Every structure is written in structure tokens, then in C-alpha cells.
From TrEMBL:
Similarity section: Belongs to the short-chain dehydrogenases/reductases (SDR) family.
Oxidoreductase is among the record's keywords: yes
UniProt cross-references to InterPro entries, sorted A to Z: KR_dom (IPR057326), NAD(P)-bd_dom_sf (IPR036291), Peroxisomal_Beta-Oxidation (IPR051687), Sc_DH/Rdtase_CS (IPR020904), SDR_fam (IPR002347)
Name assigned to this protein: SDR family NAD(P)-dependent oxidoreductase
Pfam families hit by this protein: adh_short (PF00106)
Keyword Oxidoreductase among UniProt keywords: yes
Domain Ketoreductase: 7-204
PROSITE patterns linked to this entry: ADH_SHORT
Provenance organism: Bradyrhizobium xenonodulans
Length: 284
């Protein structure tokens, strides 16, 4: 019996890369899967039948799946993705918000369109897909799992990805808030910061012409996401795991011992207590 036997999972951006790996593993573990993908290019333009191909592969392997081509970044798209799950399988138990695009530029070169579209697909798209599923789980008294995709670009920063990093940092905040609000409904919310070579890595120097390291394949991220979606992680919510075939770690915010002025203080006082205010590495 699979880890997701009897469950219904929605995976957005599942026409290739990480989403495809998640969808196929989830189906192998017993879940019926809604494979969502607009089929766009990396920058968000165009459409294709990517979702249908993944569905055909899942069915050929003996699994259950249906395709959905709605735009994750609109409320209507999010509602339609949920409706696809209910119409096909009668329920939803798991949502994986994975869809994304890139428009990398250094900050001074980012256009308003570059900024708006990346934030819309990643951050608003996560909202648009999560809200209808959240309400359905709440209204039907069903526990569920929602896994959102953050990134080290948002959690730690990365050159040339101000738009992407800002969206991914926003998703971290959403994970934290919804994990608190979800307690009363039995809804767990977790995050994944994946490290895998996908088409989003295509233009990174050193990878463009070389053979990708198989340890960084999307298939080596999927088991970590399966863990989060399954009952094996029933005691965990509000946590973000950085996942790859190399290592799996939890990423979290920490605070230092700090300076406690207990009232009036000066900027010079803060400087004098820098060893308590900052982490040691920040003083080097």
C-alpha cells in the first residue's frame, strides 16, 4: 500500500521538471493526481500540451491522473484547478504549489513587467491556488496538506533574482501564517526549497553546455516532498525543508541573544553591543 493511497493531489506546474517528478511519484504511491500546467515557456509565454503528456505517462504506468491547463495566477484559474479535482475524483487532500517562471535581471535592469509577472505567478499564484483548496478543506471538515515552493533565492538571496527572491520570501511568510491558521482545521502547511537541475537552470554558467549532475535531478527532490505530503510528516507544519539529492535540511529564522537596553539607548550603544546583536559570522 502506497503512502498516499486514497488521496487526491493537485500539483501545479507539473508538465515537466520538479512538478512532473512529484506527480509521477505521488501516483506511484497511490494518489490520484491533477496535473496542472499552462505549458508556457520559462519566461511565462506560450502554451503547450505538457500536462497531457505527463497524464498519459501516469495512466500508462497504471496510475490515475487528469490534466488541467488553467493559469495559476488568477482566482478563476485556482477555482478551476480545484474543480477539476472535485469533478474527477470527488475530493482533494494535497496541494503542491510548484508552478513558476523566471525573468532574471540585475535590479537596475528589471522592468515593471518583469517584476509583476514573476511575483504574480509565484506569490499570487500560490494564493490563488491555495485559497479555494483551503476553503474546501475547511468547509468539508477534512484535514489536508498544502506544500508551497520557496527558494534559497528568497531565503538567503541570489544575484540577479530580486523579483524571484522577493516572491519566494513572500511565500515563506505565507507558509508561516497559514500553518498557524490551519491548526484549527487540521490543515498542515509546509514549504520546500528545492535544489535540482531543471530548465530554470538552463542559462547558469557551467551548466549550459555540460552534463547535469544526476544527484541534482528532480527525482531526487520528489521523495522529500512525498515525505512532507504523507502521514510520515503528520507532526510537522510551518516548516521549510531545503531538499536535494545531496542533503535535506530545515531552513528557519533565528534571532541572536541581542542587546537589551531597557529604555533609552543611543546608536553608539548598539555598536558597542554588536557582538550580541549580530551573528558572529556577520562580524567577520
Amino acid at each position: 500500500m502506497g503512502l498516499l493511497e486514497g488521496k487526491v493531489a493537485i500539483v501545479t506546474g507539473a508538465g515537466g521538471g520538479l512538478g512532473e517528478a512529484y506527480a509521477k511519484l505521488f501516483a506511484k504511491e497511490g494518489a490520484a493526481v491533477v496535473v496542472n500546467d499552462l505549458g508556457s515557456t520559462l519566461d511565462g509565454s506560450g502554451t503547450s500540451a505538457a500536462a497531457e503528456k505527463v497524464v498519459a505517462d501516469i495512466i500508462a504506468a497504471g496510475g490515475r491522473a487528469v490534466a488541467n491547463g488553467d493559469d495559476v495566477s488568477t482566482p478563476a484559474g485556482g477555482e478551476n484547478i480545484l474543480r477539476t479535482a472535485i469533478d474527477a475524483f470527488g475530493q482533494v487532500d494535497i496541494l503542491i504549489c510548484n508552478a513558476g517562471i523566471l525573468r532574471d535581471r540585475t535590479f537596475s535592469k528589471i522592468t515593471e513587467d518583469d517584476w509583476d509577472l514573476v511575483v504574480k505567478v509565484h506569490l499570487k499564484g500560490t494564493y490563488c491556488c491555495t485559497l479555494p483548496v483551503w476553503r474546501w478543506l475547511r468547509d468539508n471538515g477534512r484535514p489536508g496538506v498544502i506544500i508551497m515552493t520557496s527558494s534559497t533565492s528568497g531565503l538567503f538571496g541570489n544575484f540577479g533574482q530580486a523579483n524571484y527572491g522577493a516572491a519566494k520570501a513572500g511565500i515563506y511568510g505565507l507558509i508561516r501564517v497559514l500553518s498557524i491558521e490551519g491548526r484549527k482545521y487540521g490543515i498542515r502547511v509546509m514549504g520546500v526549497a528545492p535544489n535540482a537541475i531543471t530548465r530554470m537552470w538552463a542559462d547558469i554558467p557551467g551548466l549550459r553546455d555540460g552534463d547535469p549532475d544526476p544527484i541534482l535531478s528532480p527525482g531526487n527532490v520528489a521523495p522529500g516532498v512525498l515525505f512532507m505530503a504523507s502521514e510520515l510528516a503528520a507532526d510537522h507544519s510551518g516548516k521549510v525543508l531545503a531538499v536535494s539529492g545531496e542533503k535535506i535540511t530545515e531552513v528557519k529564522m533565528l534571532t541572536t541573544e541581542g542587546f537589551h537596553p531597557k529604555g533609552h539607548y543611543t546608536a553608539q550603544d548598539v555598536a558597542a553591543h554588536a557582538t550580541s546583536v549580530f551573528f558572529p559570522a556577520d562580524l567577520q
